[in-house]
Design brief:
The protein is α+β, with helices and mostly antiparallel strands and 367 residues long. It has nine helices and 18 strands. The strands form two sheets. Strands 1, 2, 3, 4, 5, 6, 7, 8 and 18 form a nine-stranded mixed sheet that branches. Strands 9, 10, 11, 12, 13, 14, 15, 16 and 17 form a nine-stranded mixed sheet that branches. Strand 15 and strand 16 form a beta hairpin. Bound molecules: pyridoxal-5'-phosphate.
């Protein structure tokens, strides 16, 4: 029996999902939350109505940025059931981020339970197979009203859900990527491995520069030498040499331990590709694209799954990959991963878990 209390919501909203869902613009009717105090630890885990937060203007999160978040997805299977994809791993990463930011861990089993129960309750909001998926966004923020720079003694952990379409408006089509040659995102020993909002705030000014050059994503270089490829705004990145060899930068301490990246590392050899974690110099990458040794590049992340890269722009140089078309490797990995996520093909890795239908029915009956 779960310790999560399900509070009634006043009005059961029937979801009306617009055709162009976009990404992260619509939110379901319920949310999970629990609070932490130093004296009592975590308490009162509950699922209740989705509502505005009431925060003291001095809440530490708003001043020191002591916050973490994560993102995973629920997928509608063709039999109508729902799949979660590697959600436990996501819960574990949430705690690693929290630890880096000096925040208390949450109970992984409870966190997973909260995701499953919330998704079960909100099952009507999961888009149909071809329309998208339900993005799950867990967050933890420091709520103690204190301006001193130190760990907060109070926290709020909450989870919200957003029915989403493709991350990029053009769907599964090549994106253009702008290499940030001067600004950096994260340094080894810094917070790059944590999913904390400051990393993303630091990327916004360059994203504007990227947009002006017709690019949707920024590629970050290592912060020390500014020569090695780190990752892309919301994705890890990989390059395809010839038709069979995939190289992706190693987890250097400055980039996120991407769950999609980890999945590709496991999946690619089973599809007959060679894959390695190799430091990649940006000058070599630009050269190898130009001379044809690199045939494709793609981003890997929960939001876009696999995003083919069609153009790379750095200072006054610009190179095109595979004639700005989706390449066969990106296509195959996309088909395989989404096939597993939506339950269209077998999942030999046990990455998916079905949302418990009995529980869904019981939960709906109480609301
Ligand atoms: C900076 C960054 N890198 C990589 C990723 C990909 O990680 P995952 O595959 O776990 O979504 C994300 C997305 O969460 C991200 O924000």
């Amino acid at each position: 029996m779960s310790s999560i209390k399900i509070e009634p919501i006043l009005k059961q909203v029937t979801p009306v999902l617009p055709d162009g869902l976009g990404f992260g613009r619509h939110f379901t009717g319920r949310m999970f939350s629990q609070r932490f105090t130093e004296a009592e630890g975590w308490s009162e885990p509950a699922i209740g109505p989705y509502e505005n937060l009431v925060l003291n203007p001095a809440a530490a999160a708003l001043h020191c940025g002591q916050m973490v978040f994560d993102g995973t997805k629920a997928y509608r299977r063709s039999d109508g059931d729902l799949n979660l994809f590697r959600a436990e791993r996501n819960c574990e990463r949430f705690n690693r981020s929290a630890e880096r930011m000096g925040m208390p861990p949450v109970d992984v089993a409870l966190h997973f339970d909260a995701i499953e129960m919330l998704v079960a309750l909100e099952h009507r909001w999961v888009p149909d197979v071809d329309a998208g998926s339900l993005y799950v966004r867990p967050v933890m923020i420091a709520t103690e009203p204190v301006l001193e720079v130190r760990a907060s003694r109070e926290y709020l952990h909450y989870i919200i859900l957003s029915p989403v379409g493709p991350y990029f408006p053009d769907g599964f089509n090549p994106v253009s990527v702008y290499v940030s040659h001067d600004q950096v995102r994260a340094v080894r020993g810094g917070t790059g491995e944590a999913k904390t909002p400051g990393n993303y705030a630091a990327s916004i000014a360059v994203s504007e520069a990227a947009r002006k050059r017709g690019c949707q994503q920024v590629l970050w270089l290592d912060a020390v030498e500014r020569r090695y490829v780190d990752e892309v705004g919301a994705m890890n990145i990989a390059f395809v040499y010839g038709d069979n060899e995939i190289r992706t930068p190693p987890l250097s301490g400055a980039i996120l331990h991407g769950i999609t990246r980890d999945s590709v590392l496991k999946l690619a050899p089973d599809l007959g590709y060679e894959i390695s974690e190799t430091p990649l110099k940006i000058d070599d990458v630009m050269r190898d694209i130009q001379n044809g040794d690199i045939t494709e590049a793609f981003g890997m992340g929960t939001a876009a799954v696999i995003a083919p890269v069609g153009r790379l722009v750095m200072l006054d140089k610009e190179v095109t990959l595979n004639d700005n078309r989706t390449g066969p490797v990106a296509q195959r990995l996309f088909d395989q991963l989404t096939g597993i996520q939506y339950g269209r093909i077998d999942d030999p890795y046990a990455w998916t878990s079905r949302v418990n239908i009995d529980r869904r029915d019981a939960a709906v009956a109480t609301s």
